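Thread: "does anyone have the structure for this chain?"

Original post by V.I.:
We have the sequence but no experimental structure in hand. Need at least a predicted one for the grant figures.
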Amino acid sequence: MASVESAFTARFWSLIGATFLGFLGIGTVLPALAPHIKYELGGSDQTVGWVVGIFSFVALGSRLFSGPLADRKGRKITFLLGLLSCALAGAAYLAPLKLPGAYLGRILQGFGEACLYTGAAAWAVEVAGVERSGQALGYLSSAIWGGVSAGPAIGHWLGSFQHAAALQLTTAGTAFVMAMLVKEEFQPAPHEGARPWLQTDLIPPGLAVGLANVHYPVVAGFLILHLAHYGNSGPAAFSSYALVILFSRFFLGGLPDRIAPGITFYTGIGAMAIGLVAIAMGPSPAIAILAAAILGFGFSFPWSSTAATVLRKTPEWQHGSTIGLMSAFCDLFVGLSSLAAGSVAGHFGYSAAFLMAALALIAAAVAGKYVFFSNDGESERPGFEAVCVNGSGIGIA
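Reply from O.Q.:
Generated one for you, tokens below.
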């Protein structure tokens, strides 16, 4: 178990830097992808939708593979496999394969993203120590959010899809070399037989984080359109939302390690609800920007609070599978809510889509009850005592 002084060493920051580069490459190709498919490859609008959407389906399915791989073969090999797949995606985009190359690139990118995140999260918690898992995941989330936020701006600046694809290949390759130099100490535990792919005790935390993510496609798809009718503050509001998430996860990610994670979880979804309802009401530009910032602040906590709680109750050799499955819940709910938000907005208006996301937080709060306030056999679960007796005075909330 890492001590407080040694938790965030050069190994940890090298891992964070490699993760940033991996997600920077993923984000770089996004702005020019649809125009590239339609105007350079001659694809239809439907083809654009299929090529863009196949990423999510592949990523969702790959979560169920990447988690067990991280537990059985190691976090490092899973992380490196993700980076390799992202690099190959860049190469597929550059190859003269036309539309099949675009499909292949997105498939490789979806698989790579799943392995990259699962390996990085399990490895970061291992390096920092499970008693500091909230802060470790906060730093990791900042790297991911920073990469996918900066990537599109860089891709737009590069001016062509080919240049963006070449940068993805370069950043993933650089990250691969960085990660190769990071030492892994994890030793997989022996397993007898296959474990069930869906562990029932992970359903409540999966629902909690999944329902907290329902708002994301609503914000990404309709924030700018909705606020165009109320002073056109959408771009500034979205920037406020993204920047607050980035800085909150970096500077406040350790709160679930220092206070009861249930407090940070419910504070987070409470702030999210305030922000969503305020935006739904069609506020003035100043209020809209403030509401988006409150929403971003709240969204900084549900994942780290839930994951930190679950990982402290889970033996180390199951951390990869746990993170992979919880991430799959997020993917599932983002996908389903994307469809639902479009339907709700089409029938009832943009405000209704934001209210739908706020209502999902009520269900997240109910699911959270079984994560943070259930005492069903905590002391009997494997790994529980090892977390409580860690020399730092930090135990399970």
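V.I.: this helps a lot. The chain has two domains: 10-180, 201-388.
O.Q.: and The two ends are 19 Å apart (CA to CA).
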